[in-house]
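Input sequence (153 aa), recorded before submission:
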Amino acid sequence: MDQKDKHILNILQADAGLSMNELAERTALSKSAVWRRVRDLEERGVIRQRVAILDPEALGFGLTVFALVRTSQHSDSWFARFEAAVESIPEILEFHRMSGDVDYLLRVIARDIGHYDQIYKRLIREVDFADISSTFVMETLKSGVALPIDDCV
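Predicted structure, token format:
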């Protein structure tokens, strides 16, 4: 990945809605060169998708929850049920397998505590867990999705 690719990525991270003309203008490349580079970055999996980042609170999701999941089951069939359950719940935005005392970490958005309780009950109806401990975000001090492109290889 050269500096031009990194420049394209930095621009797209700030505004993925730019047209190829606008992107070409900002990078001092031709439209076809920019298009080829973006297509190559997509094919290589560097650009996974281009999306609009929405404000959860503006859409009524005022609660962010981190659910720390512990299990005593580690079979493929149990994990398949867990993964399917997580995929079926759109409020679960992130799903991580962890090292240490916690087996999985979920980031969940909800309208309020009652809504989160519905999500929680749906999850535990579908999968057996040893423990789920939920922590509620009081205030988000930093949140982002832009990666430090200049520091990548």
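Checked by second reader. The first strand starts at residue 63 and ends at 70.
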